[in-house]
Write a structure and sequence with these properties.
Layout: H1 4-9, H2 28-41, H3 71-89, H4 94-108, H5 135-138, H6 141-149, H7 172-180, H8 192-201, H9 268-280, E1 286-287, E2 305-309, H10 318-333, H11 335-338, E3 340-345, E4 348-351, E5 357-359, E6 378-383
Antiparallel strand pairs: 1-2, 2-6, 3-4, 3-6, 4-5
Helix pairs in contact: 2-9, 3-4, 3-6, 4-7, 4-8
């Protein structure tokens, strides 16, 4: 979907695309042996490392099939709005609301239960015996929610979300588990999709910035921008990385067939990236090689580009937007090791030479307002 004219018009200072090498056909077994070898050697191409905590959430095992209509669903929406209202009151980012929704879905299906395992009660199934409060307090929705976040005027001793150092860089399920200390620490992950849908129905902006520690006096070194608003870790979205320097040797389109779709070819570097992406983004569909006869300067026929579909127009669907953000964030967090040259997503373009996102114009080739042309329904990744 992309060629060098787009990058030039976006203001990139990067080097010109490397020339296309000669096509070398190899057998399928040899190709995959090459992929595995390159995957093992990929980190050696660069010495820079990615900051700890840059991880991508993937769905957990099991299913999540809550009621989608009726009294329970209406009640869930009202509770979700309450979670967000309390988060906003305490200047917490939208990610805090998402963690709360996922936690409540796992613990109670967002119901104010009178009982549960042992002496657990309420929306978050907090226990009086472990210091969360009295049974009466924990069945008061506002108290239980503030206790979960750790922002209540009667804040109980167990650590709430803002008391967990670095919670906003953790995978969502780990952040929930840090508060809940459940016997099933990975169970929260499977509720992410439903949580995103509920938040969208409730009109909640989960991309909202904020202070991850809610003004907590002992908060660990949060940085702030010119406005004083905290700058969240870029792992919570497709954030800027700063320029990524380095030289990547030229490679030919020699891995046959493309392991993403069984057609054409890709470079060894792209093949290695596909292997990593399949591990990190389990279940994510992607397609790399394409003839692109209508746009021969594209990276796709060179075996240097992949498209990862998010579904519908993300401008109209919060879940699709969040999905694309997670794909882009992971791609940028590993770009130093994998040789990613540029990424296009949601009307913006990021290049390794620049290290920042800029508005995507379509480069005179695509309509930047179109869901496909503006990359509102898929993430485009091009390799050196």
């Amino acid at each position: 979907m992309y060629d060098e004219r787009d990058l030039a018009k976006a203001g990139s200072a990067g080097a010109a695309l490397l020339g296309r090498g000669a096509m070398v056909k190899v057998g399928i077994l040899a190709a995959f042996a090459l992929i595995i070898a390159l995957f093992a050697l990929a980190p050696a191409a660069k010495t820079n490392t990615v900051a700890a905590g840059c991880s991508i959430e993937v769905p957990g095992s099991g299913t999540d099939q809550p009621e989608t209509d009726g009294p329970l669903h209406a009640q869930q929406i009202e509770y979700v709005k309450m979670f967000d209202r309390i988060a906003v009151e305490n200047n917490l980012p939208g990610r805090a609301t998402l963690v709360a929704i996922m936690t409540a879905l796992q613990e109670s299906q967002i119901r104010n239960l009178p009982g549960g395992h042992a002496d657990s009660v309420g929306i978050f199934q907090q226990r009086p015996s472990t210091g969360w409060g009295s049974k009466q307090q924990l069945q008061t929705e506002e108290y239980a929610t503030r206790a979960f976040f750790g922002v209540g005027p009667q804040d109980p001793p167990p650590p709430g979300l803002i008391d967990i150092d670095g919670w906003y860089t953790m995978p969502l399920t780990e952040a929930a588990q840090a508060v809940q200390v459940s016997a099933f620490p990975d169970a929260y992950a499977r509720h992410e999709g439903t949580a995103l849908k509920l938040a969208a129905e409730a009109g909640i902006n989960l991309d909202r910035p904020g202070d991850p520690y809610g003004g907590r006096p002992s908060r660990p070194g949060a940085t702030t921008g010119p406005s004083g608003a905290p700058i969240l870790n870029p792992c919570t979205g497709p954030g800027d990385t700063g320029p990524i320097d380095g030289t990547w040797p030229e490679e030919s389109c020699s891995v046959v067939p493309d392991p993403s779709n069984g057609r054409g070819c890709v470079t060894p570097r792209t093949a290695a990236w596909i292997m990593q992406a399949r591990t990190a983004l389990r279940g994510q569909g992607m397609s790399c090689w394409d003839a692109h006869a209508w746009n021969p300067t594209s990276d796709h026929p060179r075996g240097r580009a992949c498209d990862l579909m998010t579904g519908r127009d993300a401008r109209k669907n919060a879940a699709e937007k969040a999905k694309g953000d997670r794909i882009a964030a992971w791609t940028l967090s590993t770009a130093r090791q994998t040789g990613v040259r540029y990424v296009i997503w949601y009307g913006r373009i990021w290049s390794a030479s620049r290290g920042t996102w800029e508005k995507y114009s379509g480069g005179g080739v695509y309509d930047a307002n179109d869901p496909n042309g503006g990359h509102f329904n898929h993430v485009h990744v091009s390799m050196y």
